[in-house]
Amino acid sequence: MKKMLKYLSPFAPDQSGVCGVLYELGGLIVICDAGGCTGNICGFDEPRWFTKKSAVFSAGLRDMDAIMGRDDKLIEKLSKAQESLNGSFTALVATPVPAVIGTDMKALKRMAEKKTGVPCISINAIGTKYYDEGESQAWFELFNEFTEKADDSVDGSDYKNMVGILGATPLETGYSSSDVLTEFCRSYGIEESVIFGIGSGLEAIKNAGMLKKNLVVSAAGIKAAKYLEEHFSVPYEVGYPFIPESVINEVSAIVEKKEQIDKILIIHSQFAANELRNRIRSLSSDPEIKIDIATFFMFDDDYSEEGDVRLTGEDDLWDIAESGKYDLIIADTDIKRLLDAAKYDGKYIAFPQFSISGVPLDSGKTLYQY
Predict the structure, then answer these.
(1) How far is 112 from 109, CA to CA, in rounded Å?
(2) How far apart are CA 138 and CA 359, in angstroms?
(3) What are the DSSP calls for 2-71, one per residue?
């Protein structure tokens, strides 16, 4: 029962992460489900539905479709949709149903390409992993499929002085506006940037091999960044420009007051938490201050320090809160409910995380009021 949640809302699964990456790239996205998974993606995990269109379909699998493996029926429907919408590519996204019955997603990819004559990628999401695992697969498949096959006739000179921002999806950052993200990047010292998947289409993916470098803002982007470095000699570094100024101001106020803060815990995605840790150290005059990181999501040992931990469930976080070892915890507002229940009596600062609370930072309110 490690993943049982009593105080937190369920986290977005891997198929939602896949669709978040593909949303603005002009492809035709088919979610291989009976309808439920698509409903979750459209209703809860993708804030851009309110402002931008995307061709996202459910395969509408019925019991007998799944039992009999009627792949030809799926491909026929996909072909008709492609004829109508003329997407630049097709994407087949698995869900728990294909995972349970052992659907060969690579075979579906080949069938789709043969039938439609347009490129296809397939993502083997299984629905039991979190959004960033799906994002990692999607980023890699995109660059592997399209960057390698970039059209030589396309003038990519505009990209040579740009920095690629890799991993900045709404689920990761809480922002769905490319203008907001670009402004954050400028304040971070990046004047010319292309934000993959937000405000940029498939052309940016095709020309990714021409970029000056990549800034990876999520552990989900590391696999793709390594691929681009290995095959196209595009170097990468890790950072996170998107920390809200309100969080920095609150942390600064505590540090400037020189309150007795010896141990701090930051609960967020790993790279965002790392960035905030560095900011706190730059503000603090105490070289001995201990700052640990905890995350429910992807955790890369290469970017961790002693004391950092990946949380496997609420129980892990409950034990940490109950132990009283931290004087300050910085985390999403939904996590505050668990801290209160565990009788945590230290200081708390809110650091919103859309993948936990579902609150888009560029709207200032929750998507749904119950």
Answers:
(1) 5
(2) 24
(3) TT--SSSPPPPBHHHHHHHHHTTSS-EEEE-SSSHHHHHIIIII-GGGGT---EEEE----HHHHHHT-H
Distance from C-alpha of 240 to C-alpha of 188, rounded to nearest angstrom: 9
CA–CA separation, 130 vs 135, rounded Å?
A: 9
Residue (of 139, 174, 166) closest to 47 by Cα position? 174
**In which residue are the tokens 């709207």 written?**
363
Q: pLDDT tens across 110-147, in order?
A: 998 999 999 999 999 888 899 999 999 999 999 999 99
CA distance 347 to 74: 54
For 329, phi then psi, to 5°, come to: -120, 130
Distance of CA 148 to the CA centre of its chain: 23
Are the C-beta atoms of 221 and 299 separated by less than 8 Å? no
DSSP letters of 348-364? EEE---HHHH---TTTT
- Report pLDDT for 259: 67
